[in-house]
Every structure is written in structure tokens, then in C-alpha cells.
Amino acid sequence: MNTLLTMLAAAAPVATGWTAHTLWLRRRLNVARRDPLTGLRTREAFTRRASGLLRDPRAVVVLADVDKFKQINDTFGHAAGDALLKATADRLAHHVGRSGVAGRLGGDEFAAVLIDDHGTAGDVLAVLHGVLARPVDSQDPAVHTTVSLGWARAADFPDDDLSALLRRADEAMYAAKQARAGTRRAGLGRLFATVTGRRAGRAGARADAPVVGVAA
Q1: Does the predicted model carry a pTM greater than 0.85?
Q2: Secondary structure class of 152 (helix, strand, coil)
Q3: Could you tell me the CA-to-CA distances from 139 to 9, 54, 89, 91, 100 in Å, in that order?
Q4: pLDDT tens digits along 197-210
Q5: What is the DSSP-derived secondary structure letter of residue 188?
Q6: Cα(61)–Cα(72) distance, rounded to whole angstroms?
Q7: Which of the following is catalytic: 108, 116, 123, 156?
Q8: Is 117 among the residues known to form the active site?
């Protein structure tokens, strides 16, 4: 018995050390998966979580783009622009809730997957559009803008993966931005030409690829 107790006592510091190291690694991994400015998931972390959520037929993919963001930066400075991005991220994450996921894809572009429990995604996103247009707390009231939203219901496109649904949401978002409509659902209204599924100039678009979108 004494030998067993001695062995356990000797092993305890090692076990404690490994536990602390594991916790440290988990914290570091979590930090690496988060955008340092907004706290949202990075593109890679968002993709991993969002792809899993698409197994739920109630899933809705949303793409959000801040309108006239460069004008905010040029007029009020980068600190004001950063505050606007942070506020946008916080509000988006709040509306998506724990059942969904939100991420920052880069710049002033955000994406989310939400679970539409009641089939009211259009109404929810219309409310979100209004919330995102509110002035930023503790900032000059002039530091605000609108955010154009495009969305696609996964069940409408059962053969699409996350990448394809984001392309559809991107097209819908651009249509909303052009029409100043606030939000637009994929599959409704005019489609704009895209390059490999991304509009020219957007991340992921190749200049040498054929145009695959159509205009109605």
C-alpha cells in the first residue's frame, strides 16, 4: 500500500502539469480561431462550424457587408471604422444566438449560419438590418451606416455545400446593395455575373476564370 501511495504521489505533479498544459493549448487554439478585432470566428473556424450546422434543414446562410465602410474610415479614421466593425460583429453574433455561428471573412465582410426554428428568417434578418444600422455606442452618432444582407435557405438548395450557399448569399447581398433593399433572399430577383461564383474583385475570384453567373 505504501508503495502504491508513493507512486501516486510521485505521479500527481506530472498529471497536474499535463492538465495545465492541455488547458493552455486549448486556450491558444481558441485564440487562434478568433478574429483579434471582433472576437468572431476566423474564416477557417467559421467554415468548420458552419459546415456542421448545414446538416440541419432549418439552416440559413447569411452574408453581410458594411455599406460605405471606406467612407467611414476616410472621414472619421480607422479607430472609428474598427469600432463600427466591432459593433457589427457583436450585434450579428447576438442575433445568431448560441445555436448558430458568426464569423468575419475579412475586411468588412461577415458571414453567419443561423437555425430558423419558426420559418421566419426573412423577418429576423429585416430586424437585424435595422439593428446593424444603429449608431455605435460611445462614438460620434455620425459613425454609422447600413449593412447589406444576402441570405440563402439551405433547404432550397439541397445539393449545395457551404461554399455554394455563400456564393448564392453573396449574389443576393450584392443585389440588395445595388437596390438599397437592405436584405435579399437567394433565388429571388436579378442575379449578377460572378467569376467562379464570386463577383469580380471579391476574395476567391480568379481573373482568368470564365464568367458563370447570369443576368435576368
Answers
A1: no
A2: strand
A3: 57, 37, 16, 16, 29
A4: 445 445 444 333 33
A5: S
A6: 27
A7: 108
A8: no
